[in-house]
Amino acid sequence: MAEAAGVTGAAVSGPVDADTWFAGLPGVVVAAGALITDPGGRVLLVKPNYRELWSIPGGICESGEPPHVGCHREVAEEIGLDIAPGRLLAIDWSQPYGTDARPIMHLIFDGGQVDDGGDIVLQEAELDGFRFTALDELAAHLPPFGLARITGALDAASSGLTVYVPHPMAGPQIAG
Q1: What are the chain's domains?
Q2: What pLDDT, on the 0 to 100 scale, is given for residue 5?
Q3: pTM to 2 decimals?
């Protein structure tokens, strides 16, 4: 007897149809953002009106939307810039809402440089403002998950590598 993936204790005989198998898989939220800097190396942050701290431009990908496409769409929606995402800088895995909530995979792409923000048009329905932030000021504006994600992306931008930034989770850990 085969066990249907993700369906606890549901023994099935024979093959499981694709829809049943797929519906039983665990879910992960996919989000994508752009690391955009000014010529001085300061990071562009946006202030969502629905949370206390800041973030980089980006957001949740639509169902079936590739992360680089979601990044492009979110940047255009949030700050009005038509920026083609560059290379993938960082991948981040977290469960910011606890272990009972779906985890989130954040993919951070290189968004390049913008001069002074003069072309930025904020999506006022979601954002209260934007700022270019010096690296030594990021911790004052970002939540811990966001700070680790952005720091990892900055390291990747300077090293030429892509980094994985897993966050601690409750339960068993892999010894490393």
Answers
A1: 27-166 (3.90.79.10)
A2: 46
A3: 0.84
